[in-house]
Amino acid sequence: MNRKILVIPGDGIGPEILDHVVRLIEVVASKEGHTFELADALAGGVAIDAEGTPLPAQTLAKAKAADAVLLGAVGGPKWDHLPVDQKPERGLLGLRSGLELFANLRPAILFSQLADASSLKSEIVAGLDILIVRELTGGIYFGEPRGVEVIANERRGFNTYVYTEHEIRRIARAAFDLARKRNRRLCSVDKANVLEVTQLWRDVVNEVAEEYSDVELTHQLVDNAAMQLVRAPKQFDVIVTGNLFGDILSDVAAMLTGSLGMLPSASLDAHGKGMYEPVHGTAPDIAGQDLANPLATILSVAMMMRYTFDLPEVAARIEAAVEAVLDQGLRTRDILPEGSTGLQQVGTAAMTQAVIDAYGG
Ligand code: IPM
Ligand code: MG
């Protein structure tokens, strides 16, 4: 297999993690007998500094030409003063919409080795394995009109929360298909008691459900869903929701697993092309100090093998290598509970190397 991967390191801890994780991809390629052609490109704050825009046209073109994109993270305090439409995050949103990556898969799996790192009691999270399917190219993130205007000497900010039927239908189908491969339970999250757009969401999800009589569908309002996620998270199998609610609920789900540093994600188009990125951000406070946890990015590479390259065995071997290093007691600082014994704190480089060694590289 000869496939192209575009690496976009971005800002903050993104570049230092990707420097190491790229070596894992090379080891995977040589060990499994595949060729992954790696190229890189700028997006986010570094692209603003170098090219004056968070998403240079060349980056989007390269991303379109690649089979998969591996992204670090974008953003940071250096660019906070910029208007919203020029911030680093706009580069990420432009990639998502430019590549039509409407289905964002965010699995929250608790590795048993990390049960003590969760802020919840271990019996509430032990064995947790849920999948959040977030709509990624629509909703209030992209709705028009948007802006800040001045009316009668007062500023007025506005965004538009909009979904068309076909956008809801395709994300619902993606979520039902994924639920079919898991425990066949899907919970759709909306705010149908207040927002018309999410009443339509609920109606369309119910229509799609008729094609999936083997999957049990439930609905929850987003405020209740947030509460249920911390009260009894194991009631969920697959959650499907819109862009904004998915952003919020996936951070909650991430924290159940001990650390945002553990959560991978896949953003897929209708044809299996994908962009893979950790759910965590740029963590500017620890950037450049070899403290960042590379496991979310490594697990994102595993998702790339599974969803874009259709290599589930390779994905499983990468995931097993992550389990192995956790079994060895290696921990980056974010997953090292205070006062714990028998664990060894390691940095980004050593953690990645340990995964490579466990993989057999
Ligand atoms: C995420 C992030 C992004 C989002 C930001 C960086 C634009 O929070 O991927 O969850 O809001 O989608
Ligand atoms: Mg987020």
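The chain has two domains: 1-102+269-361, 109-133+166-262.
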